[in-house]
Amino acid sequence: MTAEITRLTAAQMAAKLAAGEITSVELVRAHLDRIDAVDGGEAGLNAFIHVSRDEALATAEEVDAVRAAGGAEAEALHPLAGVPIAVKDLIVTVGQPTTAGSRMLEDWVSPYDATVVERIRAAKLPILGKTNLDEFAMGSSTEHSAYGVTRNPWDTDRIPGGSGGGSAAAVAAFEAPLALGTDTGGSIRQPGAVTGTVGTKPTYGSVSRYGAIAMASSLDQIGPVARTTEDAALLHELIAGHDPKDSTSLPDEVPAFGAAARTTDVSGLRIGVIKQLQGEGYQEGVLARFQESLDALRAAGAEIVEVDCPSFEHALSAYYLIMPSEASSNLARFDGVRYGTRVEPEDGPLTIERVMGATRAAGFGDEVKRRIILGTYALSAGYYDAYYGSAQKVRTLIQRDFAAAFEQADVLISPTAPTVAFPLGEKLDDPLAMYLNDVATIPANLAGIPGISVPGGLASDGDGAALPVGIQFLAPAREDARVYRAAGALEALLSADAEPLWARAPELPTAAAQTAGE
Amino acid sequence: MSEISRADVEHLAKLAHISMTDEELTTMAGELDVIVDSVKKVSEAVDADVPATSHPLPLTNVFRRDEVGEMLTAEQALSNAPDAEDGRFKVPAILDEE
Q1: 8 Å CB contact of A369 and B4
Q2: How far apart are CA A277 and CA A308, in angstroms?
Q3: Which listed CATH number (3.30.450.40, 3.90.1300.10, 3.30.1490.20, 3.90.1140.10) goes with A2-264+449-517?
Q4: Which of A376, A432, A449 to mutate against chain B (most B CBs within 10 Å)?
Q5: Do B42 and A318 touch (CB under 8 A)?
Q6: Model-level pTM greater than 0.90?
Q7: Could you tell me the maximum CA-CA distance found in chain A, to the nearest angstrom?
Q8: What is the pLDDT of residues A64-83, one digit of tens each?
Q9: Complex ipTM above 0.90?
């Protein structure tokens, strides 16, 4: 029983909780057991940096007590009350550490909750813990974490994507049914693609960013991670909405995303295939699954058109100038004065400037230093117009391309990532090759529009077993419901004759088996 | 031609307050050179008359009344400080002198 309940979808868990068939304590215990079994040890997934056992069980007991008592309070419970969730360790939480995957925040505990965490607590979702990520969300493989790499549940010698590899791996491996991620250039969608899970980057401003440690403020967005489109939509509904604490938060009503995800009808939906996001650089297997998805959608009545977005050629370059520029400014706050690590230089005079230099040298990892220096360069006198200025102009061109594309199509489609999960270590010494993982996800961040990644089947890169491929849908700003409708439809079409992809992940070695093998 | 020299990185690291060893400076110069060489073509991709976009959605500034709201106590604000004294953050000497 306990092993089986972790394999339910969040919506199914919610229904069983409401019907009194299971309790939240049972659900939380089952997930904590699963974390104990697969997350630790040498070969463990390491999806979690911190597990919050007592707090999760206390919340679960509270929900169960309210349900047992019945009456108005039980009626008023949020539909997801009692369904456990994991939180990316970039999002601040009272009572649990928030490291951002960095030595800089090793012992730091936030004195306040992020708005999304407040909403999760108010809705009484037990928080299982904080998930691993590339340091300060800078990376595409979760290898740049100061707390060790996270492994892909489909092949533990491969990357789980990044920066939100911990959230994606936790959800794929049934350690949590839901998780929160952040997406600056693809950090929710690309891990979703390579782990066979669903991840949404909402419209910029749809979900409050208050309490997400900032990397690039004009690009960062918090969003949901789940195994199904419906689950992602339900979590999005819960965390969306205006927040006066985030001045970029949209003052809009929250649409019924869950209902949109359940509308599996695509007849008459115009789907635009982005000419620039396929072909060279994309693996054969990825393109084959992409074509099959297009065929399935066409057969279901969607109208497939090709759209031309010529400026996307420069999106990656523009992103890798804008993001480091904003990051170099945002990360200036880690100075060893008000919070976080302080390191004193080993010799010489003890001045604040030298302490800052030593603190940031010891506290930041290589990728973070690389981006801060690159951003400092792009913003420096003499280069600003050519680099940062030009990148901002490219951003305008990309928005124009999207505007033209959405004249011809209701949603756009592409592979989420050019490749399936690659082996751990393969791109660690080649930053540029690592950056190419984000080529298909970055345009949405530059334009502020919503995007989702849903499983599109399995493909081999020619070297090992078949691994998940992600399909990305994009919609105009504030039209997040459209990506849920399209993704929900594709998910239903692809699992009509087969088990959904997330249910087909291979068995993982458990801690007990690991010990027995030693 | 090399875009970023070791001396450039040394200067940038000083601006960014990150102490770096000689080895780190050399490695970083090589890596940044490759990255900058790859991204610099953005300047050729745009005409002068294209407006710049700093933000994805058109937003107007948000104002609120200048009233004291719910906020952290001094104790909470100092709870993570590496060093504090008398309700203040404590730092090493600001000026490089005895």
Answers
A1: no
A2: 10
A3: 3.90.1300.10
A4: A376
A5: yes
A6: yes
A7: 73
A8: 999 999 999 999 999 999 99
A9: yes
